[in-house]
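// run 5 | inverse folding | seed 20
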């Protein structure tokens, strides 16, 4: 071994860096149980028509935030693809994570059905009774995990405190109960039987990625300049032995050990070039790193770009205009989401005017009262009972001339319940003198929680109809 070989340091396997994914999965399992003042970190409740985001509760009327969340999710995934290829598939996709859990942990490590994790091409011999028993046991174990995963998924739509309560009466909540069974059954079929065929044939993301790629997109790439061309221009395999390859290309470093092939979960040969089936799990990078490391050489397969490895034009440009545009959009949308989320209304109020324009009443003191009736639909979005009341803000010059006639007292509204109330506004003053038509007066209704006027208050625009003078004279 020469001095250069001695000084060579083998890169840390990518699989060790993937452990954070399992920490993320564990965190996702417990997030639904985290509450502050009854509000969850994230919850989209179709049952109660609420969205909980960052421990703030928003009601259905405030779901204008959802499009922003969806935009952040899709822009994040697309931007991630432009920069790192199908890194989402290999590192964050539940399909990949669950396949690793089932194949590598349950079948290989726990039950010893497979000889080793690095060989993902050789399936267990199911003609042996021992393997049939182990396969059945593996499916049973995974089925139990699938039910936990299905429940955890639904906890983001039905909070755990309600979920377990509903499951005590499955006949009354058959949709929820059926949802758990359906999701668990799909996970069993997908992970145990469909396997990586889901990534290859079902998932549409592999088709979308090819549109998003550019020459600087980072992916798992084989370096043919160092390793040699194993395949010809027709994608046909030419060399299977190292001596054959080196007879044609003496400088070729590929040992043709095919460790990169045997470890691939989607059963491709990365030396063939870019393929839609590649999920960027970087298992082939680790395999080649281990083999070439023993020879004192860097891996022939690296996580890099066509620009750097294939075309050899220079270093990969990570922060190019396209990436900066995605980052800028994400920042802008996040700021808008934060601003809109911070303006959450602590009470919801819809005001609809009754079909009757107004009513006129002659009072005992000789004055004429003009009433306008409205239907107020009020919802308390806080956690406690609150009393709500209103005041009228008329145009300048009419201060105090339009007031609340009914109700006379504040309304008690319990959380999460919509309350409908008829509210009558009255005036005993002459607000207009038009003998041809009724006068439409713009007003603002200020609604507030008694005792919390500085925090829980909303404003709604409306109108007050004042009758033409001929109508008033008749009274």
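// decoded
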């Amino acid at each position: 071994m020469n001095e250069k070989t001695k000084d060579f340091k083998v890169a840390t396997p990518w699989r060790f860096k993937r452990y954070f994914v399992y920490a993320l999965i564990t965190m996702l399992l417990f997030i639904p149980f985290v509450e502050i003042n009854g509000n969850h970190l994230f919850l989209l409740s179709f049952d109660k028509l609420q969205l909980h985001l960052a421990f703030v509760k928003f009601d259905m009327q405030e779901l204008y935030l959802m499009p922003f969340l969806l935009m952040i999710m899709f822009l994040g995934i697309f931007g991630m693809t432009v920069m790192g290829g199908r890194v989402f598939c290999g590192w964050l996709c539940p399909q990949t994570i669950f396949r690793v859990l089932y194949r590598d942990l349950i079948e290989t490590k726990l039950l010893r059905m497979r000889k080793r994790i690095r060989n993902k091409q050789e399936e267990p011999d199911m003609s042996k009774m021992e393997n049939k028993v182990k396969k059945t046991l593996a499916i049973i174990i995974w089925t139990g995990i699938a039910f936990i995963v299905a429940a955890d998924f639904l906890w983001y739509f039905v909070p755990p405190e309600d979920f377990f309560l509903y499951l005590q009466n499955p006949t009354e909540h058959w949709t929820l109960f059926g949802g758990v069974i359906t999701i668990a059954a799909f996970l069993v079929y997908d992970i145990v039987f469909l396997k990586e065929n889901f990534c290859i044939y079902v998932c549409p993301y592999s088709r979308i990625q090819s549109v998003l790629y550019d020459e600087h997109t980072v992916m798992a790439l084989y370096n043919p300049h160092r390793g040699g061309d194993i395949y010809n221009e027709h994608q046909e395999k030419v060399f299977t032995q190292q001596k054959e390859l080196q007879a044609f290309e003496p400088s070729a470093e590929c040992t043709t050990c095919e460790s990169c092939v045997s470890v691939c979960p989607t059963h491709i040969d990365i030396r063939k070039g870019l393929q839609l089936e590649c999920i960027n799990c970087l298992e082939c990078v680790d395999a080649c790193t281990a083999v070439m490391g023993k020879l004192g050489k860097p891996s022939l397969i690296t996580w890099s770009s066509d620009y750097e490895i294939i075309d050899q034009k220079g270093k990969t440009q990570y922060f190019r205009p396209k990436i900066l545009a995605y980052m800028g959009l994400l920042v802008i949308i996040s700021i808008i989401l934060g601003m809109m989320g911070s303006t959450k209304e602590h009470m919801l109020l819809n005001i609809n005017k009754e079909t009757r324009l107004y009513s006129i009443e002659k009072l005992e003191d000789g004055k004429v009262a003009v009433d306008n009736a409205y239907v107020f639909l009020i919802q308390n979005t806080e956690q406690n009972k609150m009393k709500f009341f209103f005041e009228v803000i008329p145009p300048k010059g009419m201060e105090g001339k339009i007031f609340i006639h009914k109700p006379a007292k504040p309304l008690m509204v319990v959380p999460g319940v919509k309350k409908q109330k008829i509210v009558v506004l009255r005036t005993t003053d002459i607000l207009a003198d038009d003998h041809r038509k009724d006068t439409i007066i713009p007003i603002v209704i200020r609604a507030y929680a008694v005792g919390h006027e500085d925090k829980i208050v909303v404003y709604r625009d409306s109108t007050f109809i004042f009758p033409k003078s001929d109508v008033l004279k008749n009274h």
